Amino acid sequence: MATMRCPAIAFLLCLACAPVRADVAAGIAAYDAKQYEIALREFRTAAKAGDAHAMARLGGLYRNGHGVRQDSAQAMQWYRTADAAGDGRGSLGIGLLHERGQGVAKNPAEAQKWYRRAAERKVGLAYYLLGVARREGSGGAKRDAARALALFQEGVALGDESSVNAVGAAYLAGEGVAKDEAEARRWFQRSADAGDTTGMYVLGVMLRDGQGGSVDEIAAASWMRRAATKGDADAQVVLGQMYMEGLGVPRDAAQGMEWYRKSAKQGNGDAHNQLAAELYRGKRVTADLSQAKIHARAAADQGNSDAQGLLASILFAEAQESAAPDFSEVLALARASAEQKNANGEFLYGLYLFAGYGGAAKDLDAALPLFVSAAKKGHEGAKCMIDSGLATGQFKRGDLDFAEWPDILKALDRANSPECREWGLYAKIGFDARIGKRPSAAEPRSSTAKK
């Protein structure tokens, strides 16, 4: 192999530039095994010997703080050295630093320039990132779903797994191509077979829900377990739900809670919410209000609308027992949940406005639309409140602006809904958070590319 000209950088002056492929291969293997100190040693040895790919890999270690103290300046130096030597991953790394504002001013448009340079050097991940910008209309790129799909397909041709998932997502959502769930399922199957956890996760959801083919809960649980075992936090939550519900696996609440906890340790808000709901209700596991509150707050702090409603309920009960009750946080949480169109949040905030409770100003005109929105989503408590309001004359039938309301009233099981007869007990309804919420296969996961 021909010797490459060395870049004129002080710490690499006069180094031979022939690739040391054995060192690079060993470094990649160590990195994939999360043995970052070994990877650092191997890449450093190869980089000092002039291997441009190792230089880029070394930049990645410094950028992420893997095996070494995080140092964006060092990352940029190694990326620029790799780029000058013609390595596309170096170009890509410079773009990532600009996109995320690491060591430089955040500049998505500048990042796009470097991604294009990396793409010209046939880096598959660069095509994926350019495709994301086109799909979302970010980084100064014009939104163009068809162009995004073409870029993803270029990434696929170069072996990029993020691009495989992106093509699947395009078929699933019908973005840039006719919606085709069966075709989407084939793409996610391809990704899962290649060992990608996002592919495993989405394929598992599609198998569970029968999207793009028949339902197969056993296969769904198998794929979800494989992704969860690899540390995928979203898959850990869904696998926990499957154990709770006995879908594709024997019903086992202890196993379900264990998977929730594994995910929560990674900071997953949905996992914290599931733990909070289970520990609060105490129907499938032993109730623990103090732990429920901790997990509800962790999820609520991430904007989880279910958890906001549950935490509001917990804090409401605590405030009622206080000598100097303060309902300000309760109202803020209920309002935040309602603003996200969460049925339980709409119901709970509507209750405060309906009764002028907890420090809220009584406002029937504001409460009714909240109950209506929650009732349309199937919330029994909201149906009860509308029924009660009509019975007591506080709401008028002329105020209800949706045609299906008579059918909803017919479906309302008043015999088993004491709140419909004694609406003064309404607060009890608001204490239930949703259990076992199932994310759709089309629900977005992190768009951050896997490096």
Write the layout of secondary structure elements.
Layout: H1 21-32, H2 36-48, H3 52-64, H4 72-84, H5 88-100, H6 108-120, H7 124-136, H8 145-157, H9 161-173, H10 181-193, H11 197-209, H12 217-229, H13 233-245, H14 253-265, H15 269-281, H16 289-300, H17 305-320, H18 328-339, H19 343-355, H20 364-376, H21 380-391, H22 405-411, H23 418-421
Explain this structure:
By secondary structure, the chain is mainly alpha-helical. It is built from 23 helices and no strands. The chain has helices at residues 21-32, 36-48, 52-64, 72-84, 88-100, 108-120, 124-136, 145-157, 161-173, 181-193, 197-209, 217-229, 233-245, 253-265, 269-281, 289-300, 305-320, 328-339, 343-355, 364-376, 380-391, 405-411, 418-421. It is elongated and about 85 Å long. The relative contact order is 0.05. The model is unreliable at 1-20, 422-439 and 446-451 (pLDDT under 50).
